[in-house]
Amino acid sequence: MALIAPFFIWLPFLLLLIPLLQLKKKQHLPNKPQKQNPLPPSPPKLPLIGNLHQLGSSLHQSLWQLSKNRPSSTGARRLTYNYLDIGFSPYVQSYRKIREEEVDKMVNSISASSSSGVPVDLTEKLFAIAASIIFRIAYGTSYRGSKFEHAKSIYELIQDTEAMLGGMYGADYFPSWIGWVIDRVSGVHKELDRISKELDGFFQQVIDDHLKPRRRVDDEQTHEDIVDLANNPGLMKKAQEEVRKCIGNKGKVTETETDHLQYLKMVIKETLRLHPPAPTILPRETASRCKIQGYDIDPKTLVLVNAWAIARDLRFWKDPEEFIPERFDGSSVDYKGQHFEFLPFGAGRRVCPGIYIWERQRWSLDLQIFSWKLPDGMEEDLNMEETSGSLSLTVSKKTPLNLIPVKFCQKE
């Protein structure tokens, strides 16, 4: 469902603002000219709606084109239960064992497919491993083998939730009663209410499962890495050789050993540069009036950091559209928020908490055990086009990733 109502639905409510703005202007008409605050420059805009008409279906790309020429959000407040999410939780213990076990399970699953030569849907596999790790951390049970694994509604619910978290709401941009009407007429409020109720139902199932007697307790940011390597077989071979040389004949990779895989680290960094998990990160908000490069910024100003565009800025990156892991060779630039030209997970105290799960969740074991090839009839140049049609918090490939795993045989 599109999250922004058609222009003809918005127009009547926007026109209501004209007399209100004129009245406000008369009430605050000064007796003498006042000094205008220097505001930051912006692309050409229309009265009332500003630049809303210039935002296309892909927010980060629209903002990037416009630039070339954690604030209060209605969706986030509703869908995170008034911001009670992991982003505000305290530091927790290491989840190394959980991550290693879930990687082993995924590899075993891929091994079964490699024997038959059947293409593997890596989108589904990587969603399952991410879900399993988070499920075990948050709920104490694995996603694999649970009643949620074969429920398509879970994947769809996550997709819908991300779309709504990145959506635009009249209540965030217009006076309260006008925003209230806009959100209801446009259908945004109805969609938000639907997703909120589905989330309630999901969490209720989790709670009920925890309350069951004699419940069995377990004893113990993205598939673009494989996509880029599949598009660059020479680079894949180089990464595989490094992994296999480091690991040798051992059948399992430990997290400590991944620290020695320098080329794999460069591949991961380059993947994050080209495909940040959340292209515009999470919105921020100014807490007080401030001045940036001579421009006055009002309090409660919405700030969107376009990590996708920053990572393609020619001032910082040579040939930014090319997948070149070697650009990080000997470079201290990292993705933990200390280098502002590279912010796939954000920065500061509100850096994405998923970084601490993801940074150790590397696919070195996949590269050690498997080579990957395209199914018969598939073009060698994989389609990297992103999904569009909504202002989602995250983006994914428009075309599903299906590859055939070929098991590597260690020479004696």
From TrEMBL:
<dbReference type="GO" id="GO:0005506">
    <property type="term" value="F:iron ion binding"/>
</dbReference>
<dbReference type="InterPro" id="IPR036396">
    <property type="entry name" value="Cyt_P450_sf"/>
</dbReference>
<protein>
    <submittedName>
        <fullName>Cytochrome P450 71B26-like</fullName>
    </submittedName>
</protein>
<feature type="binding site" description="axial binding residue">
    <location>
        <position position="352"/>
    </location>
    <ligand>
        <name>heme</name>
    </ligand>
</feature>
<dbReference type="Pfam" id="PF00067">
    <property type="entry name" value="p450"/>
</dbReference>
<dbReference type="GO" id="GO:0016705">
    <property type="term" value="F:oxidoreductase activity, acting on paired donors, with incorporation or reduction of molecular oxygen"/>
</dbReference>
<dbReference type="GO" id="GO:0020037">
    <property type="term" value="F:heme binding"/>
</dbReference>
<keyword id="KW-0732">Signal</keyword>
<dbReference type="InterPro" id="IPR002401">
    <property type="entry name" value="Cyt_P450_E_grp-I"/>
</dbReference>
<feature type="signal peptide">
    <location>
        <begin position="1"/>
        <end position="23"/>
    </location>
</feature>
<dbReference type="InterPro" id="IPR017972">
    <property type="entry name" value="Cyt_P450_CS"/>
</dbReference>
<dbReference type="GO" id="GO:0004497">
    <property type="term" value="F:monooxygenase activity"/>
</dbReference>
<dbReference type="InterPro" id="IPR001128">
    <property type="entry name" value="Cyt_P450"/>
</dbReference>
<keyword id="KW-0408">Iron</keyword>
<comment type="similarity">
    <text>Belongs to the cytochrome P450 family.</text>
</comment>
<keyword id="KW-0503">Monooxygenase</keyword>
<keyword id="KW-0349">Heme</keyword>
<keyword id="KW-0560">Oxidoreductase</keyword>
<keyword id="KW-0479">Metal-binding</keyword>
